[in-house]
Each structure stands twice: as structure tokens, then as C-alpha cells.
Design goal:
Elements (H helix, E strand, L loop, with lengths): L12 E2 L9 E2 L12 E3 L4 E5 L12 E6 L11 H7 L6 E10 L2 E7 L4 E3 L2 E3 L1 H8 L5 E11 L2 E10 L1 H4 L7 H8 L13 E3 L13 H15 L6 H6 L2 H9 L5
Parallel strand pairs: 11-12
Antiparallel strand pairs: 1-2, 2-3, 3-7, 4-5, 5-6, 6-7, 8-9, 10-11
InterPro entries: AMP-bd_C, AMP-bd_C_sf, AMP-dep_synth/lig_dom, ANL_N_sf
Organism: Coccidioides immitis RMSCC 3703
GO molecular function: CoA-ligase activity
Length: 251
């Protein structure tokens, strides 16, 4: 997006209150159409770590840690949050999942929103981006459906109006099959696909994942221990149902 009077341009960046607004920006005079947050500002350090505290290889997602003179010292009257987020050696744990290629960073998700499938991490944003590559899909959101300490990706999909008018519109089962060759097996939408009218979002455009997790939990409660659930038949393929059944999650 450019300023209409030609006085300048609006650039992408990354920041948070704890880093005094910003630490990563797309440099002035550089055009970027990849969605990158940019490169590190001067006097800033960044590392991306896995769950074991090891730095991830280039191109792999990891939780972003920032260290710089502009990082806040502590939270006001909140020692617990300070201990969890602001480490003694000056590193700030941001909670954002990022990928680095060369000097450039891409923010791909929030750590608390990651879905764990068989100890492997699945970023909802990655699956949402894959779903939006389907010409019949207008919008999509993915959350984890937890059942007996296991988690399964579940998608909520909005079809384009023209698609809804078809005699045989796209089904949730077809979407599950469509995405399989496009993502790794642990990222398959095993928790099912439900077609909805609108993805709930804040005025800022941010997906209201808490609401959607409540939807997923309600669905889980419906299918848990149910033999002939109409909801199961509507939202899960037979393959997905048998997969959940193998974990003794449905009977």
C-alpha cells in the first residue's frame, strides 16, 4: 500500500510493546511482496528456538527471541510474567513463530496457537494459506481439536457465494481429500472440515481462535462416545472417523 500523495510508502514490520514498538522492518526503498516482516534493526539480535531450546536450521520455524537495548526490563508488578518472558541474559521470549531465510524474517504463527500432532508442530496459518489456494474457498480458519491428550487439525471453511449456488457444492470431505497431496501427513485435516457462513474475526481482521476452539470442543463433546452421530457423518470422512476411533476417541 502506498501513500496516495506520493510522500512515502507504508512498509511491513514486526514489533510489540516489550521491544518499544519495533525490531524488524522492511528497509526503505525496498519493495517486498512475499509478506516478510523484514530484516533486523540495528543493535538487535534474534534467534529462533525449538521446544528443546535449540536453534532451528534456516528455513525452519522456531519461536522468536529478541535481544536489544530497547527491550523492556520487566512488567510492572508482575514478576511471574517477567520470569517467563524476559530472561536473565537479556533475551525476550516473544511467543511468535518465525522463519528466517538469509537476513529476512517471516512471522508464521503464535506459539500458543500451534497444533501438536504426534509430537509434531502444525501451524494453523500454514494450513489456512493452503486452503485459500483452492479457488472455491473464500476464507478458512484452522484450530486444534483436543481429545484424550491428542490434538487433531480441524478446519472451518467459507465457500465462495458462486460455489454455494452450485447443484453440488464443495463438501468438507472433498476439501479433506484435496489438501492431502499438498501438506505432510501429520497436517491432514483429521479433525474434520465444517462449512460455515463466516469466520469470526476481530475488527482488526484477527481470527477469533478462542471462539473457534470452543466450536471444536463442542463438536468433540458431541462425537465422544457416540456410535451413529449425524454430526460425525456430516463433518468427518469415514477415514477420519476410523482414525479417531483407533485412539478410542469415538465408539
Amino acid at each position: 500500500m502506498r501513500c496516495t500523495k506520493g510522500w512515502g510508502s507504508i512498509k511491513q514490520g514486526w514489533g510489540m510493546t516489550e521491544v518499544t514498538t519495533g525490531a524488524i522492518h522492511v528497509p526503505g526503498g525496498v519493495e517486498d511482496k512475499t509478506g516478510s516482516a523484514g530484516v533486523l534493526d540495528q543493535n538487535c539480535e534474534c534467534k529462533l528456538l525449538d521446544d528443546d531450546g535449540n536453534e532451528v536450521p534456516e528455513g525452519e520455524p522456531g519461536e522468536m527471541y529478541i535481544r536489544s537495548p530497547n527491550v523492556s526490563m520487566k512488567y510492572w508488578k508482575n514478576e511471574e510474567a517477567t520470569r517467563e518472558t524476559m530472561l536473565s541474559d537479556g533475551w525476550l521470549r516473544t511467543g511468535d513463530i518465525a522463519v528466517c531465510r538469509g537476513d529476512w524474517f517471516w512471522i508464521v504463527d503464535r506459539k500458543k496457537e500451534l497444533i501438536k500432532v504426534n509430537a509434531l508442530q502444525v501451524a494453523p496459518a500454514e494450513l489456512e494459506a493452503a486452503l485459500l489456494e483452492n479457488d472455491d474457498i473464500a476464507d478458512a480458519a484452522v484450530v486444534g481439536m483436543k481429545m484424550n491428550d491428542e490434538e487433531f487439525p480441524r478446519a472451518y471453511v467459507v465457500l465462495k457465494d458462486a460455489v454455494k449456488q452450485r447443484p453440488n457444492p464443495l463438501t468438507g470431505e472433498q476439501i479433506q481429500e484435496w489438501i492431502k497431496p499438498r501438506v505432510a501427513k501429520h497436517k491432514w485435516l483429521t479433525g474434520g472440515v465444517e462449512l460455515i457462513d463466516e469466520v469470526p474475526k476481530l475488527p482488526s481482521g484477527k481470527i477469533m481462535r478462542k471462539v473457534m476452539r470452543e466450536w471444536a470442543n463442542s463438536f468433540r463433546d458431541e462425537i465422544s462416545g457416540v456410535t451413529e452421530s449425524k454430526t460425525v457423518k456430516k463433518s468427518l470422512t469415514y477415514e477420519s472417523y476410523k482414525y479417531l476411533e483407533s485412539y478410542n476417541l469415538v465408539r
